[in-house]
Amino acid sequence: MKYEYHPQRRTEQERRNLNKQILRLLQSGACEQAGVTDEDIFNRYTGDGGLHGLQRSDYENYNAFSAAKKELENGQFFTPPPLCEMIVSALRLSDTDLVADLTCGMGNFFNFLPNENNAYGCEVDPNACAVAKKLYPQARIVQGDIRDYEPQTHFDFVLGNPPFHLRWIMPDATVMTSHQYYCLKAAKLLKPLGILAVIVPASFLADSFSDKSAIRMMESRFSFLGQVMLPEHAFSDSGVDDFPTKLQFWQKKSTAVEWAPKRYSTDCADIYIPSGYPVMAATALYEKLVMVAKADLAGNRNRVFLELAQLKTTKSTFLYQVKKYLYQIRSHPATREKYDACFAYVHRFYTQRQPADMPYEEWQRVQLTEAKVLAYLKQALCRQNAKPERDEIRLVKQKYSFVYKAYSRKMAKLLTDEMRTPVPIHQAVLNDEPERFPGYERLLRRKRREYDNQEQPFSEMAENAQLADWIDRFQYWDAQNHAYIHLNPLQSHDVNLTLQKRYAFLQWEQGSGKTPAAIFTGKYRWDAGLVHSIWVISSAISIRNNWDVILKGTGFSYVFVERLADLQRIRRGDFVILTLNKVSQYKKQIGRYIKQLGYKIQFIFDESDNISNPSSKQTLSVLSCFRRCKYKLLTTGTSTRNNISEFAPQLELLYNNSINMISWCRTLYSYDKRSEYMEHKENPYYGMPIPAYKKGYRLFANSHLPEKISVFGVGQRNQDIYNADELDRLLGKTVITRTFEEVTGKDIRRIHQMPIPFLPEEREVYNIVLKEFYRIQREYYSSTGNSRKDALMRLIQQITLLLRISAAPDCMKEYEGETPLKEMAVVEALARWPEEVVAIGVRHTTVLDRYAAAIREYLPDRPLFVVTGSTVTFAKRRALRDVLRDSQNGILLCTQQSLPSSVNFEFVNKIIIPEMHYNNAGMSQFYMRFVRYTSTEKKDLYFPIYIGSLESNLMQMVLAKEKLTMFMKGQDADMDEIYAKFGVDYDLLSTLMTRETDDEGHLRIRWGEQKIA
After folding, report:
1. Fold annotation for 749-756+818-997
2. Which is the most buried residue in 6, 344, 617, 957, by most CB within 10 A?
């Protein structure tokens, strides 16, 4: 200990006067003449914390008061010396340990270090920094912002008490609290296995749900050692009483040492820390939290040194490289003249300071770094092999732009501002003036031809005679149906048009022949010598039950990639089939393989709506591997299910954010979350390609449909399609849409609504969930262990339970009646069709069990086949097709998701859906298994719906989404047409439920004309 501590509680005015006096003496250098010793300064200077002098009553609210207070104090509350002594004692530091405090204040931690020479500190406040430098002259203390602190070394320990709850904007525009940033900065400066001891607010990482992202951020860098609560009055000398804080210990991860990092826990260690003399707890802290980690640090010095050397971030390594480069530059005649400029550049690196008027984010962008210095020197050294300068200015292509380049210093002076300004390649193509870009005329003409071709609306294109002749002649054998496959005239027409473009999207309804169209497309590209192979990806059930089966029967050479070794079996002309899971698993290897082929493949994505979620692992993997392919064909029955924004990832995959997907929408739309009003603003990307990933998805959503449709939000916000003309133009050149009726020439679908009234017992259990959900919630849903997360899930769980009751009321324990009326209605319908094969599709196994029990009870003689995805394999589902057909009156009871694609039962004419999906696209994936190209008889679809239940809302949501889906299919239908298509009348929709808030702010659900709390 360098200075003895003499605690004394002082008033705010006494603290303020002592601070001013000490600072005045330091500035004048008159401390010795005034008889003020360093130990006096240590005991009397207390900093700005608690001296703001503001009154809560002078501010409109506490937030404004708190913001003003933080601005004056800047989080400056010095750590009390007893706490500093306790923390340093708990770590048991040695003379050789390098120790840093990244917001050191007046340096209280340094008072207890064994070696002041190995102490490093940073402090933004010049007054506190002056005090620290006076008290600890041997320590390496700098005045500056922690965000700018680069000490050029790594530390064994970082100790600190950072400012709390200051909101700092990072260079990537994210906002982070000051104490969280302190921990991340410590991770950057610590040696591997180095230890961080930090005082933080008790609320920091206190909730494993709301703080999940911050906890993950810490766990990615550290192993958690433990934490302990500090005394409530620990900072009372600084004017802060009863502010809960805690002490955390973390150990930086190491890649060189084999050890298992510990996960974070919100629990605090059971260690008592006395208020008066906390150093008594140091031994317990060391033995319970620090001892093992410190032993790891001490026992792996050599490995840690090697790890640091590999990082090439130590000052000695950097200096060695700088000296080597400077020596070589000065030694070679061709680079000697560059020596003075290079030396000045290195000197500038060491002496650079952030200008006072420059924002931190700007400084992070322009400041010199070690990497920049080494790159500068290396570039200068490469001049020894440089070609001699020539007096020439040429137009060159750099990344995605054209720019003029001077090949000598003399000619560089002749470059005008216009010549220095890059011209994006897409703009050069749009301008269609290739003569303005000498040397690149041929490239621009080719790109313009491709652009004009891709921009043609399919509706204005004519068939290509050569393609038509090839399509008429080509056929392949279908072993399943023992017939040769040809395309009908409409299918041939559409395939002809898509083959005239490099990128196309076939949106044919299920059962319309997308698979044959894709096979014809792939075989033509190969026969024309345009591709190396044909790659097909889709969901696992589609690949295994459809593509693998079909290609096996055609006799075409194909490779089913199930392991990495299968990539080596691919030969020219092969079909290559992969599941989406394998694309995600082997993303790097597949991407590298396709790059080696020069991206010269025909890429086919069957059921492309599987990447409608832009954040999913599948979407990112598919984009990473296939977005640069030369030829692409996407096929699906419906490109969107819930909202138009789901089309954006598929559009990005098809066009790769190129000139073919330029944003021509002048106005963007977004809803203000705090109100129901829509905001308008100009599009900053107008005339530019839609950017990649999240920026592009957000731009696409704000261009056309800024809000999703929810169960309770169908009528609350305008669901119009914005910038519809631009979206229609984009769809016109990209997508060919056909309904099942168009392709087959058959109008065989009939949809029937079956309104069913609630029986009293059914209404009773339904009302229990509406009125008493809090009471029964725990009987059906287990707690997550986090009250905040449970509260967020409550409404979703209530909606789910209401819909499940609407499907089968007897799945509830509270139901006391006989077989529910909806189940009886289904059973009676089955009884009316004694010689028919019937399919029933539900969504949950609980509901499936209730219908299975009812059918077995009332129709024991009918064959019943129960299918779920978890109990019946793909092979058994395929085999079931023949068994069901041979039964002649069997009942197929299944979950809808167990038959989503590629398992077809075209002989089934009666389909009942007692439990609806959230969109028609999801349900059509099921019922179109029975409505097929080869079907000849009428298909009847029945939707039994409880009148006055949440199912009415669900049906309305399905219809509203269908309007958007039909627009994406080029069919601008009004709601009356959609009601007629689905057989819905207005009496059914008059029972809609809405979510409202009463005058007291309580949530209420309005159902029909009643209000139910």
Report:
1. Rossmann fold (3.40.50)
2. 957
